[in-house]
Amino acid sequence: MQKPQDIFIQSEIMKISGSWPGNLKHICIDSREVQQGDAFIAINGTVTDGHQYISKAVAQGAALIIYEQDVTLPENICGIQVKNSAIGAGELASAFYGHPSKALKVVGITGTNGKTTIATLLHNLFSNLGYKCGLLSTINIIIGEEVLPSTHTTPDAVSIQKMLARMAEENCEYCFMEVSSHAVDQHRIAGLQFAGGVFTNLTHDHLDYHKTFKAYLEAKKAFFDQLPKTAFALTNTDDKNGKIMIQNTMAEVKTYGLKGMADFKTRLLENSFTGLYLNLDNEEFWSRFCGSFNAYNLTAAFATAVLLNQNKQEVLIALSKASTVEGRFDIINGDNGVTAVIDYAHTPDALKNVLSTINDIREGQGQLITVAGAGGDRDTSKRAEMASIASKLSTKLILTSDNPRSEDPDAIIDMMMEGVEITDKRNVLRITNRREAIRTACTIAAPGDIVLVAGKGHEKYQEIKGVKHPFDDKAIVGEILKTEN
For 134, which of 161, 175, 183, 262 could close a Cys bridge (C-beta 3.0–4.6 Å)? Predict the structure, then answer.
C-alpha cells in the first residue's frame, strides 16, 4: 500500500495522526458497510454529513479515517485530515484498486441531453469492433459480459474505481461513462484518468441543485478543465456553450456539428421513422436512429471512435448496425395504425427536440398526441416551460404524473398549466393517473396518428411518496395498442 503522501497529493493533507495501517481491506463511504481493517471516508454530502458517523465506523473496526473537519480520534486509529475528503475518496480508492483508469481508455460524456445514447452507442460500437468494454450509464452498468442495474447517472467515487478495477480484471480495454454535473461538483470523478471527454449540449436542467445556469455550466466545464494533455476534448460546435467548455482545457480540442464548421461534419439528408440518411464526414451513411438530435449523437460517437484510432470505414459499418437505445425515441407500431414513441425527454430542450423531430417526419399528417409530466423534488422552474413547448408542438397534450416523489402530482400539473397559453388550453387535458393518461392518448388516436409518451423512457418504476412502484411506459403502450413490438 502506498504512503498517504503519495495518495493525497491533490487533496492537500492537513494532518496525519496514528500509524499508517498498510493493508486495508475495503474502502467505505457508508459507515454501515465498515468492517474490521477497513478505511472510512467521511464526506460532507448534500443529504448527510459523514463526519457524524466516524465513531460508528471506529466501533465497527475501521483502521483508517479520512476526514476534513476537526475531529478527535482514538490513538490506535490512523487519521488523515484533508482539505477535501470527497477528492480524497477518489484518490484513495484509485490507489487501493491499483489505478484502474490507467489500465483502460476511459471516455466521459457530459452535457444535458444525449449522454446515455452516446455512451451506449460507443459501448456497442467498440464491442462490435471486437473489443471488450465497460459501460457506466443511466440505464445500466456493463462489465465485460455482466450487466448490472444502475442507480445513478454517475456512481460514487469508490464504486467507480471498484467497477473499473473489475473491468481491468476482465481485460476490458475501454470504458465509456456518463459524467453528470452532480458527479463533477461532488468530485465523484476524482482519481480518474480520462482518455477523452465529449460535450453534447447544455440546456435548462438541474437548477434545483446548481441554483443558477452559470453554476451548472461551470460544473460541466470543470470536467474539461481537469482533462490531461494526453486526452482529447470533443465538443459540439453548434451549441453556444461548446466553446466555453474547452476554453481552459489542456486536452487536444476537436469539434463536431451539423451547422457550422467542424472537424467532424454531418449533413442530414433524410429523416423518417425508419431512420436517418446522413452524409457523415463525407461518407453517406444510414442509421435506424431517428431525429436530428440523434444525428448529433451518431456524429459524436463516430468522432470519438476515430479519435481513439479506429478505422473510419469499420466504424461506419458498425454504427449502421447499431440498435436504438431503450427509452430514447423508442418506436412502437400499433396493430391499429397508430405509432407510439417512448422517450426519456424530461427537459425543455429534449422535449422540444423530440416533438420537432416527430413534426418534421409527419409533415402535418395525422395528430400528434403527447403525454408528459414533470418529476417531483426537482427543478421546478422548467415545468411551465415544458408544458408551453408541448402544448404548442402537439395537436393534443395530456399532462400527467411523472415521478412525483414527495410532491403532490396535481400541484406539479398546476405549475405546468401556468405555461399553457389560453388559446392552447382547449387542446390540453389533465389526467393525473399516468396509466389512464397513456390509455386515453392511445384510445383517442386514430390510424396515422402519433402518440408521444415522454419523461420516463427506460425507467421501470414510478416513484410516489418514497415508494417505487412497477411502471413501464413501453410495456403499457404495447399492451394498449395490442402489439408485440
Answer: 175
Q: How many CB atoms lie within 10 A of CB 85?
A: 25
| CA separation, residue 320 to residues 122, 177, 316, 439 (Å) | 13, 22, 6, 34
Do residues 310 and 296 lie in contact, with contact meaning Cβ atoms separated by under 8 Å? no
User: How confident is the model over 190-229, as pLDDT tens digits?
Assistant: 999 999 999 999 986 555 565 688 888 998 999 999 999 9
Reported as a single tens digit per residue, the pLDDT across 2-53 is 566 666 656 688 898 988 887 889 999 999 999 999 999 999 887 789 999 9
| Residue-wise pLDDT tens digits, 73-130 | 998 899 999 999 999 999 999 999 999 999 999 999 999 899 999 999 999 999 999 9
C-alpha 312, offset from chain centre: 27
Q: CA 408, 410, 414, 419: dihedral to nearest 10 degrees?
A: 100
- State residue 41 phi and psi, 5-degree precision: -110, 120
Q: What totals of helices (H) and strands (E) does the chain contain, helices first?
A: 16, 24
CA distances from 249 to 34, 113, 197 (A): 38, 22, 10
Residue 163, H or E segment: helix 157-169
Identify the residue whose cell numbers are 466555453: 244
In tens, the pLDDT along 350-381 reads 999 999 999 999 877 899 999 999 999 998 99
How far is it, in rounded angstroms, from Cα 131 to Cα 120? 14
Which pLDDT does position 485 carry in this prediction? 43
Please name each of the domains of the chain with its CATH number.
Answer: 4-96 (3.40.1390.10), 100-320 (3.40.1190.10), 330-480 (3.90.190.20)
Residue 484 has pLDDT above 90, yes or no: no
Question: Length of the chain, please?
Answer: 485
Residue 424 grid coordinates: 392552447
CB atoms within 10 A of CB 432: 16
Non-local (6+) Cβ contacts of 217 within 8 A are 202, 241, 244
Output the pTM of the full model: 0.89
The CA–CA distances, whole Å, from 382 to 163, 201, 376 equal 34, 17, 12
Query: What sign has the CA pseudo-torsion 309, 311, 314, 315?
Result: positive
